[in-house]
Amino acid sequence: MIEEARVRVPDQAQKTLKKPVVNTLLNCAGEIMGKGLFGKKLEKALAWNRAENVVISSGIAYNLKKEKKYLDIGSGPGHIGQLLRRMGFDITSCDPFVKPFASVRKEQQSEGSLSLLSEAQHLPFKIDFFEGAMVNFVLHHIPPQDWLIVFDEIERVIKPGGRLILIEDVPLEAGDRATSIWDNWTNGEIFNLLKNLIFRGKASQNLEIKQPILSLIAAGMISDLHLTDDQWKQIFEEKKWELVESKEFFSHDPVTKKDIRHEKFVLRMPN
Q: pLDDT tens for residues 178-199?
């Protein structure tokens, strides 16, 4: 399963570990939520309820098979993957620096599930090991110029013809709020929360950029982290990833009283 030569401390984790204050802020939410009666109630109201909304509204479980192995890339606090494990799916989680919340870690330890410190740009797994992978609300945390590396890594670890499930915040037009303040808080994303409050989470004018998208990304000409439906579909077409299913769903941001639009894309990898 693990390719030892590829195991390393992720770049993001190395940068974070050199900044004790930053490291503390990134992990404090998970530790607080995992301890005590108040912590358990807070975690249920925030992280678990959000994960349940994503799993139910996206219908992601219908895209998985229980006898297959799946990789949850950029799993963050780990609640979405853990809900799917409870449903009987074989999910391996990895994230560059966010360790699972305490309650998730406890469940993983009791069932022997694997959660690794790993970044999407450098997955420590063997070629063609997984039947499929999930990338849920991850790519908008990664600089677009690194997306091509991530895409190559995904193709490397998924078997030919396997499935990739990609879920992202997808604004309808420039100026729409692309991310949720509530989601930032739920995930313990301190700096994204502050940025969202200051800049109101609006998508940039890059939404007006036309294809070909991959060449623009490679040239560093795409700075927007939230693309439209059509732009995502153009990327899939250029990558020769077959779009099997797409589904729009929403989550409500109780802070701004607005609905945030999400899109699930189910893709078939080339043979």
A: 555 455 555 545 445 455 444 4
- Please say whether the beta carbons of 248 and 59 come within 8 A: no
Q: Are 269 and 160 in contact (CB under 8 A)?
A: yes
Span between the terminal Cα atoms of the chain, in Å = 21
Residue 76 has pLDDT above 90, yes or no: no
13-245: CATH architecture: 3-Layer(aba) Sandwich (3.40)
Spatial separation of the C-alpha atoms in residues 104 and 234, rounded to whole Å: 36
Task: Give the dihedral of Cα atoms 6, 74, 243, 181; nearest 10 deg.
Answer: -160
> Span 85-109, mean pLDDT?
82
Domain ranges of the chain: 13-245
- CB neighbour list of residue 206: distance below 8 Å, 6 or more residues apart: 222, 223, 224
